[in-house]
Specification:
It is a single chain. This protein has about 220 residues and is of the alpha/beta class. Helices cover about 55% and strands about 15% of the residues. It has an eight-stranded parallel beta barrel with strand order 1-2-3-4-5-6-7-8, surrounded by six helices. It is globular. The protein binds SN-glycerol-3-phosphate (G3P). SN-glycerol-3-phosphate binds next to helix 7.
Amino acid sequence: MKFFVDTAEIDEIAELNDLGMVDGVTTNPSLIMKSGRDIIEVTKEICDLVSGPVSAEVVATQANEMIAEGRKLAEIAENIAVKLPLTWNGLKACKVLSSEGKMVNVTLCFSVNQALLAAKAGATFISPFIGRLDDLNIDGMELIADIRQVYDNYGYETQILAASIRTVNHVTQSALIGADVITAPPKVIKSLVNHPLTDQGLAQFMSDWAKTGQNIL
Ligand code: G3P
């Protein structure tokens, strides 16, 4: 399963990238706003750092403008995936941009039917939002499982990019279901390492080692 980092913060991307944990990056208008950076400049910096797909989202709502924005974003670097919302206009833009050979990430997906439409429009990635469904007391993981089944039933090649990941459990469940990619904030990716028994075991080893009076170096 590939790990994308859901942020536009260069330092956080660089830190995880140095560890080989970054297969790609996703951004959205809210993350660009949080970064306080110019979208073109910060996206270029991310693309220089990371060789995998970097999603940059359009903000137009009409198909022709979405296509124009998508083409401009795709000029930033070869690894740009144009991110489009799951609306009819977004699907029209998806069809055009994917036919031009551009990677497209269709975002704000909350149903299997929406995911079917995105696959038929040629999306490279579909982004179902787990956490925002959980917020409404709807099981976000069930959506990932259902999309996996439907895509496998018909051999769609669109990659399932599990998004709006808030917990380490979302990561585990996505991997068990067979999502192709997860995108998560850096803090969630970093917390995947945590286990109290690891901390407890290490403390015991250190305490016993001190009693030996030995040094390795
Ligand atoms: O990039 C989209 C996505 O992952 C949003 O997450 O936590 O704002 O629902 P969140």
